[in-house]
Write a structure and sequence with these properties.
The protein has 15 helices and 33 strands. The chain is an alpha+beta fold. A 7-stranded parallel beta sheet has the order 20-19-18-15-14-13-21. Strands 1-2-12-9-8-5 form a 6-stranded antiparallel beta sheet.
Length: 714
């Protein structure tokens, strides 16, 4: 009897590993979120790397929703040591996500191998954030919690026995023949014996993304100063040169909140010592104090490969990989010992004297530079798993250091993955295609990461101002002059326009800060794809009708792809111009839209042509848009510093905007030390629009000074 039941138990335990394709059993884990296990998942995965927990309060507010797919059409199977997954696809369905792609927004019809890497010019899955999450325009999301190199067939496979199998067509005679016939599934192969999968309900695609972001901890809330302007100085600058640079910003009236030091602050780099260079920075503490007195914080570049001359080399060596990078050791950052040795060095040498954050470089790839997949790590986690999560681990370690000091940080990182949404880091790279940078900004909203289209150099003043305009409408307004030392005023012919956009960025701080608070508390990406905007899908499809589409929805999906415009917060639609352009089309979704600068009606559910001149980046505001702005200060308001508010109102519709306020610097908001101020627009007794702002609750932050109103639409 006992033997029989032990045998039965064994059978049950082994069943998932031995079984053929089966419909997984889903368990509800949060409102509108379900989880299942296929086979025997690895003990280390993306969520374990980050240790993040769901932001339950935010999820509860989104509320319950029905299971968004037909359960019997989802399949999982383990065979030959690999996991095979299959999810259904409807005929017209469009797919977005699968990480930080640079050239494509629509992913249906693509084959990707999700692999952390420096972006190489092709959307093949190798990118800085190869996040295994996708969202469908039908309003649901799928997340595979695996730190492996996943192969994704995003609607390219055709199953013999599918009820929806495409009709074979005759290429000789049929115009509708296609080399890539209709597929009704997303399929994946994971090179390991199992995985966890999460499913997120909508009902809209934006709500599916919000659930994903909230389930992974909620979006990051940067310090206020993080949303100001930042300049990264030339690699070998000395302390005195940095001080001079900061003075020049102030004298010329350009805003500046933090300066980034590049490799030269360290005594050795590539591999790094993670210690100050005594010649260029003889007294780092004094230098940082001086900078802080000028209202400027310091961010430090590093890569994670440690030089034999690093003060922590000997200590960390036992916890490092079998292989080196540029002769530096690669710490096994899944080990608490390695995390602690690295963290202590940063704390002792840098955080303790006031460093405000890091730029964590080179944790993504190139294959020929990085540790190879044959490398061994002492934790026994594979080189592949470390590759997929190294950026996440570094973000986590440094985020925790600042959290312990109750100081917010905001920095840069070159690799991330699912689970990084709550970390205060923005991704960047060396690729430098302005158009593709905007596509990346759009795609960042489908995968829980932030991206900056950083500005380095330009061939002409025209290109310079166009790039500056987009970076000022992104998560980090930055010039990265590490190599050529460019300044915002380097092109005198457009200095005025560049200053204007940098100052507009500062003016928009109350709006952007509130939008980031919504990222944190509600999961809404502050900069996001038009495809997440209600009323946009219908517009996109009327624009691109094509005779062959009925037979081949894949083609339709690709044709529908709209790049080059995006949403910045609740109300603003940004449509950048690129070098050489003087005009462009803009798709305005359903509803009325107004010109941001003049308040004039711009269009309504239509495609318009605009030619804004060099001074302006086209920005449109939704009907009822309420945009709280502050004066063009050169630095973000410090904790407790009051600032005046100019509230701009667009259109004729009464409405409400929630303005977020807290000290802007610490984590006290986690203990409830914040306020939402309700800005209400209503029609007064004379039938005119008027506005009011609710008082801050007693004892809660109140940084608002004088409030004025600007009703922009006549
Ligand atoms: C690159 C990085 C640049 C700059 C440079 C310094 O890898 O992308 O932004 O930091 O290293 O060596």
């Amino acid at each position: 009897m006992i033997l029989k039941s032990t045998y039965l138990l064994l059978l049950i335990l082994l069943f998932p590993i031995l079984s053929d394709a089966q419909n997984p059993v889903w368990q509800r884990v949060a409102p509108g979120v379900w989880k299942t296990l296929i086979g025997s998942p690895d003990s280390y995965d993306l969520l374990k790397a980050t240790g993040v927990l769901p932001y339950q309060e935010g999820l509860a507010k989104l509320g319950e929703a029905g299971f968004p797919l037909t359960e019997t059409r989802i399949e999982g199977e383990v065979s030959d040591g690999k996991t095979y997954l299959r999810f259904p696809l409807e005929k017209e369905e469009q797919l977005f996500g699968f990480g930080l792609n640079f050239k494509t927004v629509q992913q249906r019809g693509r084959i990707l191998q999700l692999h952390t890497d420096h972006y190489g010019g092709t959307d093949n899955g190798r990118t800085h954030a190869p996040v295994p999450f996708y969202v469908s325009d039908k309003g649901y999301g799928v997340f595979v919690n695996s730190a492996r190199y996943l192969t994704v067939y995003a609607g390219t496979t055709v199953l013999r026995d599918s009820p929806e199998a495409p009709r074979p067509l005759d290429r000789n005679t049929d115009k509708n023949w296609s080399a890539q016939p209709y597929s009704d599934a997303v399929e994946m192969v994971i090179p390991t014996t199992g995985t966890e999968i999460y499913l997120f309900a909508g009902p809209t695609p934006l709500e599916a993304v919000r659930r994903f972001n909230l389930f992974l901890g909620g979006g990051t809330l940067p310090p206020r100063w993080g949303l100001g302007f930042t300049q990264r100085v030339k690699s070998l600058y000395t302390a005195n040169q940095v001080v001079e640079e900061a003075k020049a910003f102030s004298e010329k009236g350009f805003p500046l909140d933090f300066i980034g030091l590049e490799p030269g602050w360290q005594s050795k780099s590539y591999p790094c010592t993670l210690a100050w260079d005594k010649n260029r920075f003889p007294d780092p503490a004094d230098f940082i104090r001086k900078m802080n007195e000028m209202g400027i914080r310091i961010n430090l570049w590093t890569n994670p490969y440690l030089s034999p001359e690093s003060p922590i080399y000997d200590k960390i060596k036992p916890y490092t990989a079998s292989h080196t990078v540029w002769g530096g050791v690669v710490a096994d950052l899944t080990l608490p010992e390695a995390q602690s040795i690295l963290g202590k060095q940063m704390e002792k040498d840098q955080l303790s004297i006031g460093v405000s954050g890091y730029k964590i470089d080179e944790c993504d790839g190139y294959d020929r530079w990085l540790w190879p997949d044959v490398a061994k790590f002492p934790s026994k986690n594979s080189a592949e798993q470390l590759r997929q999560t190294y950026g996440l681990l570094l973000q986590k370690i440094t985020t925790d250091l600042f959290h312990r000091q109750n100081r917010r940080t905001y920095g840069l990182v070159r690799a991330s993955n699912a689970g990084g949404v709550s970390f205060p880091y923005v991704i960047y790279n060396d690729y430098y295609s302005h158009e593709d940078f905007i596509t990346a900004l759009i795609n960042s909203s489908f995968c829980g990461v932030l991206w900056t289209p950083e500005v380095r150099g330009s061939k002409t003043g025209e290109e310079w101002v166009r790039r500056m305009q987009t970076v000022c409408f992104s998560p980090m307004a930055m010039i990265n002059a590490w190599s050529d030392g460019t300044k915002p005023w380097s092109f005198p012919e457009v200095e005025k326009e560049v200053k204007e956009i940098a100052l507009l960025r500062m003016q928009l701080m109350p709006y952007f800060y509130s939008e980031f608070a919504k990222y944190h508390f509600e999961g809404t990406p502050p900069f996001r794809a038009m495809n997440l905007e209600p009323g946009f899908g219908a517009m996109a499809s009327t624009e691109h009708k094509n005779a062959n589409l009925a037979e081949n929805p894949y083609l339709e999906a690709v044709n529908k792809e709209i790049k080059g415009q995006y949403m910045a917060g609740e109300f603003l639609l940004v449509a950048p111009l690129f070098k050489g352009q003087t005009e462009r089309s803009v798709i305005l979704p359903k509803g009325k839209w107004y010109d941001f600068y003049t308040g004039k009606f711009a269009g309504e559910g239509e495609i318009i042509r605009v030619s804004p001149g060099l001074a302006h980046i086209p920005v449109f505001v939704k009907e009822g848009g309420i945009v709280p702005m502050m004066p063009p200060l050169l630095h973000a308001p410090a904790a407790g510093q009051k600032f005046d508010l100019e509230i701009r109102v667009y259109g004729k519709t009464p409405g409400i905007y929630l303005l977020y306020d807290d000290d802007g610097e610490t984590f006290n908001y986690e203990k409830g030390d914040f306020s939402w101020r309700k800005i209400a627009i209503f029609t007064d007794k004379k039938g005119k629009l008027a506005g009011s702002v609710s008082k801050a609750e007693k004892g809660k932050p109140d940084n608002l000074g004088k409030i004025s109103w600007k009703f922009m639409t006549e």
